[in-house]
Amino acid sequence: MTAETFVQKSSIVKRIRAVMVSIVLFILVCFIAIYISNYNQLQDIQMLSTANNLLSLNTQAIESLNSTEQNMNVIFVRKDVSELRYKFEENLKVTKRLLFDSVLQSKDDPALTNYLNDAIQALDELETSHEVIFKKLKNIHQITNQQQIEDLNADLLVANQYLMDGKEILRKIQIHINKQNEGIFSSIYKNRYRPLMIAIGLCILFLTLVVTIGWAMARSATRSIINLISATEEVSKGNSDYQAPILEKDEIGRVTFAFNRMVTSLHAQQEQLNLAMDRTNRLQSITESFSEALTPDQVFEVVFKQAFEAMEAATGSIVLLSEDKMHLELKRLVGFSEEVFKKWQRFPLSMDIPVAEVVRTGEAMFLTSEMLEKYTQLEANDREEKKYAIAYLPLIIEGKSLGALTFSFPISKKFDSYQKEFMIALARQCAQAIHRSQLYDDAKKAIEVRDEFLSIASHELRTPLTPLKMQIQSVARQINNENGSTLTPERLIKMVETSDRQIGRLSVLIDDLLDVTRISAGKLSLNKEFFSMQEMVNDVVGQYAHQFKYTQSTVEVVIENDMVGFWDKVRIEQVIINLLTNAAKYAPKQPILAKVTTSGDIVKVQVTDRGPGIADENHDRIFKRFERVSDKQNIGGLGLGLYICKQIVEAHQGKIYVESTPGKGATFTVELPAK
Amino acid sequence: MLTLLLSLHAMAASDIVVIVNEKNPVSSIKSSELVDFFMKRTRNWPNGDTVRFFDYRDENVNRKVFLKKFVQKTSREVELYWIGEKIYTGNIAPIQITSDSMMTSMVSRFPGGIGYVSSKYKVPKNVKIIEIKKD
Fold first, then answer.
1. CA neighbor of A168 nearest in space, from A69, A289, A272, A245
2. In the 8-state DSSP scheme, what is residue A263?
3. Strand partners of residue B18
4. C-alpha closest to that of A127 among A95, A168, A79, A171
5. pLDDT category, A525, cuts 50, 70, 90?
6. Do A157 and B86 touch (CB under 8 A)?
7. How far apart are CA A651 and CA A654, in angstroms?
8. What is the pLDDT of residue A669?
9. What is the average pLDDT across B116-135?
10. Which of A55, A63, A112, A335 qualifies as a FRET site for A286, CA 20 to 30 Å off?
11. What is the 3-state composition of chain B as percent helix, strand, coil, each rounded to the nearest 5?
12. pLDDT in tens, B50-86
């Protein structure tokens, strides 16, 4: 699963929105551009109309000046000077107003305004000179001499001069306006196609833009979609880890990213599924192999052939608890030298090393080689040179540790949960297989013991039968013999006694067998009564005196304290007899000590012999069924005596145990509570 | 012969002088400047006063002398010039005066006035004669 996240950098929706907005803006700009291009022309036309107005005003002014000129030409001819004067003044007024109107309309043109002001000034001068003339004309009767007439003429000429000035200026204005109009006309003419051209150009630009942008967007979107489609096809073809390239970081890019993530996670899940299946298969095949393995050796073989290979481990070992549960025994070691194997063949469970810790706690441990540093009891050559990861797996059956299994891997890694589970499951299977093989071993041993017992029992039963049969046949033969004077009563009695002893021996054997079957079936019943231990021991020793005589054993009875208890007298007698006869049997010709002591409400009966003694490891074994320590052929017995003794004592809530120094004899102790 | 004499007389009698208003500080101008004033190519004196050139009627002897001596154009040519000017610049030909006395009185009435009279004519005090230099 990729941890990266998708950052969307662009958006198709936003892009389309932006394009639409820009189209709208563009259209607005087009409108404004067309309006501006038209605005110039409109202004030109407006200027033209103003100019036309000015021109017409000017024409009128010129006409009015012309009429003034005509009036001036007839100034001396006319008789009614006042009427003429009125005409003059009216004409000038009209002309001036026309000029003032023109001034108002020609604000934008300073040259024109200057001209108009000059014209107005000229008209003012004209007016002044007219007034001078009319003043003189009023008093025309006073004009008598040539000089005065000449002055009047001069005045007229001056007025004429001003009139000329005005006309000249007006004419100049006319020419100025015409020139301007020409410019405006030519500009209008020159630009007549401009708005159209601008509109067409903008249209073409707009269409190009729209088509280009649309095409590009459609192309990128289509490319992304086709990319996605081909990715789905790739995946459906079975290319389960295919990753589609993200072409654009937009919505489709986001979909592609999500698709990729989906494919990745599907792929990962599939792989995990495959892995799990693979693991299950391996475990199954290993389990099958385990179920076929009967002995611990075969189990180890399976572990280090199949499991080892399946996990690709570098080294491995298997340790099992010893019988005393205090030591660990190295059963197999793979990947280390022989010295290491010998060194660790047997070591105490209490050692501070991971293997022992795992067996003690029953919890699996997964370490790396660096973590082994703290276990100071591991020496350098107990480890590998390289870095590695190591798994310590307890072998647990029914909540008890049997031992541990270790695997190391040639890389320093942390196991994932699947690997751990797999190894723990493997250890569990291995533990079961080992347990099974141990049970199988025990069963096999039990069968062997039983077979041995049967052969011993049949031998033991047969031993007294043969002399018995011989005695009886001999008696029968001698009775049948007519002249059998050899059969004296003494001899007969002796033969019968011998037979009786053999029968007694047989009946003891059969009683033992019966007791064992009773005990096995849980049918050992006690008939308790009160009796004195001292008396009982003395009785028994007295009863069996002849037998001790036979083995040349001397029995010394020491009674320190007596106790009267509530016990099954017959059974307790049986225990004491068994201990004494055992002592006589295994240590013939040696003194035997029978000692009775008490401590509190417990009575202790000890039988001490000076025989060969019993080794420590056999202390428990001798109290088991069908077990005999001695290999001596001359010592008979079924090996049931001490087993029966133990069962009887334990039925009385007592204890029986042995203390021995090999070669110096043994002491069997029976402890019985008073009640 | 008589006509020749007359014309000689006329030639001799019709030498002219250029006059300006007495307040005009200018004492001499070039003959080309004089023609520019006449043709209304120069409209102002150096002191800013408007140039007002006064001319004679076509038949006047002074005018003939003036045209011949300074303008160096025939009366017809001058007439055509003013027609053209009227159309293209709006300028109108100067006012034409009949006599020397009227000429002096007009020049004396306008501060920027300029005109010419016969050299025999006695120039009054309110105008002054200026010298015309050769170019």
1. A69
2. H
3. B116, B130
4. A95
5. confident
6. no
7. 7
8. 92
9. 89
10. A335
11. 40, 25, 35
12. 899 999 998 888 999 999 989 999 999 999 999 999 8
Residue with tokens 């209304």: B40
Measured between beta carbons, which residues in chain A are less than 8 angstroms from residue B105?
150-151, 154
Q: Rounded to an integer, what distance in angstroms lies between the CA atom of residue A515 and that of residue A452? A: 19
Query: A12-73 vs A251-292: helix axis angle to the nearest 10?
Result: 170
The Cα of A169 is separated from the nearest Cα of chain B by a number of Å equal to 7
| B43 lies within 8 A of chain A by CB | no
Residue A519 near residue A641 (C-beta atoms within 8 A): no
pLDDT at B55: 93
Check CB contact of B105 with chain A, cutoff 8 Å: yes
Tokens 């280009």, located at residue? A212
Give me the residues paired with residue A378 across strands: none
Q: Which residues of A touch B101 (CB under 8 A)?
A: 150
CA distance A65 to chain B (A): 14
ipTM value, please give it.
Answer: 0.85
Nearest one of B16, B13, B9, B12 to B54, comparing CA atoms: B16
What 3-state DSSP class applies to B132?
Answer: strand
Query: Mind telling me how many Å the CA of A69 is from chain B's nearest CA?
Result: 13
- Token code pair at residue A276: 């799990």
pLDDT of A587: 81
| Adjacent-strand bridge partners of A556 | A593
Tell if the CB–CB gap between B92 and A168 is shorter than 8 Å.
yes
Tens-place pLDDT, residues A104-125: 888 878 888 898 898 899 889 8
